[in-house]
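Minutes, project check-in
Item: structure for the 875-residue chain
Input as provided by the requester:
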Amino acid sequence: MKNCSASNGFKLSLLAAAVGSALALPIQGFAQGEEATALEEVIITGARGKPRTIADSPVPVDVFTSDTIREVAYTDTNDVLKTLVPSYNVSRQPISDGGTFVRPAQLRGMPTDKTLVLVNSKRRHRAALVSIGGSGTQGPDIATIPTSALKSVEVLRDGAAAQYGSDAIAGVINFILKDDAEGASLNIETGEFSEGDGSQTTVQGNIGLPLGETGFLSLSAEWTEADATDRSEQYCQSWFCLNPNNPVYDPTAWYTAYTNDPAFMEGVKKANIGQGNNVQPWGQPNSEATRLFFNAGFDLSDTSELYAFGNYSQSEADGSFYYRYPQNGTIMDLREADGSIYSPLEKFPGGFTPRFVGEVFDYSALGGWRGEWSNGLTYDFSARYGNSTIEYTLNNTINPSMGPDSPTSFRPGDLTNEETQIQADFSYEIDTDAVGPVLVAFGLSYMDESYELKGGNEESYIAGPYAVQDPWGLCNSDGTASSAGLSAIAGGSSLDCANPSDPVFQVVGVGSNGFPGYSPEFSGVYDRDSYAAYVDVSADVTDRLFLQGAVRYEDYSDFDSEVVGKIAGMYRVTDNLNLRASIGTGFRAPTPGQQGTTNVSTRLPNGFPVATGLFPAGGTVAGALGAEPLKPETSTNYTFGLTYSIGELDLTMDYYRIYVQDRTYAVSTKDVSTDPNSGAAYDNYLALVGAGVAGAETIGGVFYFANAFDTVTEGVDIVATYPLDWGNAGMTTLTGSVNLNTSEFDSDPSEYLNDEDQFDFENIDPSWRGVLTARHEVGQFSLMARANLYGSYENANGNGESQVTQKYDPLVLFDLEGAYRFNDMFSLAIGGRNVFDEYPDKDEIGDMCCGALYQSNATVSWQGSYYYARLNMDF
């Protein structure tokens, strides 16, 4: 056990060096945003009650305006935040089940579900997807929020569970919606990668309308369509290779019987139904989305307002699973009832790559009444409803156990997350002689949430006749042919009951291959409700000292109650220098989705594709494997920082430390084998059989979520702006930000994670990341140059003495954009991302499989250059 009171692995000298470096380089300051918003920017996140400025905030908050957001050449709001906030990371996950459609992200090295997402300061509902690996993230789908709807974004980089509730361990992201009563805008952008693929078109619009004489209605819409990319090579592994020119290809191997067969190789061209030349493409998926948002307000009086906002989003994307080659356990010869041989190659002559389609529906509505009573008490009553549903379709695959009767398209089921919340918030300012006005904010809330796994069509989960040996009774137990077998032989069958390798004894997988459907046994609804109350007290104790304290109580129907607290303060040393610090406790209750999700899919636990099952920690199957029901994660957060302003330079620097106990994480995959001599792997097989898992014989691995270990995450955030006025030559704004971050275990994880997973947990993400931007404006013309910097990181493959590691070099990706404003209405921008076409290092240790060249879940982009043009119209 490490000493959690000490700083582990992240030396405080790093903070001192960072402070010294930043103060020594004012012209190359690190950014607060894409413009010199400076420290007087007003914020509403982080302090209940009255808004404060960035300089006066006791906790670090970034603010990004709509102009800043519009200048980022991405459609997905996840990618916009990644560009603006270095401690926010999101990766492209091309073969990751639902992670292909709802991408999990990180803030300060912590997964999405440890960052609370707000819209107009109200909690945003979670997505239906539960990531099946790592922390099992289930957080809001930020991609459903179109950037055209945003007035600003505030990113609170500090634990705030005492103020806002469960999930706010790493921080809070607050999306503020546009509230104009007039005006309109329309943006059209189109672009393509330099490889000639991945073309994308986006149309965004917003219009502000008056609502009576005292109200507004802001409507925003976005439509986007993107084609797939492919950054892979043809499938070639030691067990099956399709490329004779690859050094791995063995001309004496058994698979050459297929690669030398013209009919098979012609079928290979159709193995992934026309998505590229490679049977297993790695890249972004095909996608299309339509997203709508509204925001409305109506003044009842000078002190009272009705408000409402909501959204509707529909998106669809498709991605590949792993290529299925002959004799891989799925494409196998099977004996039919008449003794003839059936092979899935009759349906797919060159093997097949399952195509996974996800259609995501997301909608919400919130209404409220807020104002101030005559006694000075402010009130805010609100109610919200949110729903996220993913409908899955699986094409270009089979249910192997159904043999020739299997369809090739399936509906394996749907996932739905649903939330309803009623909330009341109040604040009151108390005048005191001792310290001046004291602001007291307090509130109550009730939330009901549910997670449903809706069963798929029967063909997607049914155990067909070939889930067992000799389904037609062609052989006797003594190795002789039965009467049915003798009849088949008489009809010309090659049946040989004495040969254990005869197809009559072949057993194949159950369910739609790649993603078996949710059967009635693993379908159902998981729900709970919770109550919460909080008190937040803050005051300017002196002209120089501001203090804030908060306490929150929450009670869950499926867990014990929790009490958390926070103390924060800001001290004005001089007119230019403020010091700030906070300490707080937090918690995150496992979601109903994390407690109930079930999944069987193809994964690579030992570098080889096998069917791997995820089962609920509190269920019968995982219980038989040694799992225990999940419990809440708890945390302790520390921050210490400063805000500094001298001349035109605005600078904020913050050190943070996040200690998380009982962290939820997926255990390393446990092997499953039907071989009685395989030890624990055979015991796991018996556990699956005992728990009634259909097709247990074809599952190669199992895992579940557990409160596996304690961790310490430490880092430094540096953000600043520095404008340069060139007179008639225009204005240049230098902006940038840097995040340094490490995560380490604070307990022994070996009971839950193998050596490889332990190494990757601590080393797989870049040790630091920065964004440096120069934006020059002169007359009607502007030019932007941005450097996206990634520090080194490491990846491991294997366990024990056989483990090998690879260190990835630091990388800088440059973006360029030039824009010209023709008049008050029209402007045109042309630019590129990663204009020098840089890629991270390729995999050198064999950790990537099946055609992948790059670490597929890396936070560093591996798509290459992208060029675009954007027309902006303001009315």
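Outcome recorded: The chain has one domain: 12-232+280-320+354-469+506-590+630-667+704-874.
No further action items on this chain.
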